[in-house]
Amino acid sequence: MILVTGATGFLGAELAKELILRKNHIRCTKRVSSTIPKILMPYTSKIEWVDADLMDEAALEDALDGITQVYNCAAFVSLKQADKEPMIRTNVRGTATLVDLCTQKRIRMVHTSSVAAVGEAKPGELITENHHLDSSTETDGYAISKLESEMEVWRGIAEGLDAVIVNPTIIIGASAGTAGSGQIFETVRKGLKFYTRGTIGFVDVHDVAKCMIALMESSISGERYIINAENRAYKQLFEEIAGCLGVPAPKTLAKPWMMELAWRGAAFMGAITGKAPALDKTSARAASVTREFDNSKIKKAVEVEFKPVSETIKEVCQVLGN
């Protein structure tokens, strides 16, 4: 039997749906307070839901009863500075607990990390799986939590765990709504005025799910894979989204010093309102950086053909426009 952790999230829900469409009866974990995603509601008879937070070892052990494969998609994500240490602690300790249990029970795992945990390449070069984040200089809590969680998986692999790690770029898809990567589309829809010089990778959520399943069903173990469809400049992305939504594209270049002011202003407002800032320091600085990713390793491993980013953009805009 298959277990999916984090199945109430964007990627986890799409992965669970894909597994069901492939005739699998699956078990999914959720927190007691979590809501089952709309895209999984038609498949309730095919899913065994269990309340099991990754921090609750006893509940997690019960959830793993009879399981042979685990897709770990669970993670605590927050931009709030106050959540930095709890996020790192939760993500790392939760992953460590799952790794230990899967090692003991000889359960195969596909662990979802992020390119936030992948290092930088030299200027003009593509970022590959061989690049590693420098934990001594990194300050972003999410990146640190993903890196240290990965290290727990590598520890497990050294101790005999059968596992593969995936590092998706920015995952987009219609089911994201206006949360997560969906905020990009919603911000453009509301009238974004500025663009930055940065470049980053994007990939359709269905392609990430399909790559994870293909890796799980392969004999590959002890490897990490960047999952990326295309590298896009933010300016190009914003213009395409604006065109699909029928709204004006941003015309003004936001220079790095302007982004510095923006994140500080967002942090100030967040401190006053108690809400997560609309922009954090890491995101603001990354928006002006060129990060381009090499997807050749995953293409060789599972022979995937990625959906063009333009197609996914059209799908997302169609849903937002309705």
Automatic annotation (TrEMBL):
It comes from the Bacteria. Residues 2-226 form the NAD-dependent epimerase/dehydratase domain. One of its GO terms (cellular component) is cytoplasm. InterPro entries: Epimerase_deHydtase, NAD(P)-bd_dom_sf, NAD(P)-dependent_oxidoreduct. One of its GO terms (molecular function) is aldehyde dehydrogenase (NAD+) activity. Pfam families: Epimerase. Gene3D superfamilies: NAD(P)-binding Rossmann-like Domain. Signal peptide: none annotated. SUPFAM superfamilies: NAD(P)-binding Rossmann-fold domains. This is NAD-dependent epimerase/dehydratase family protein.
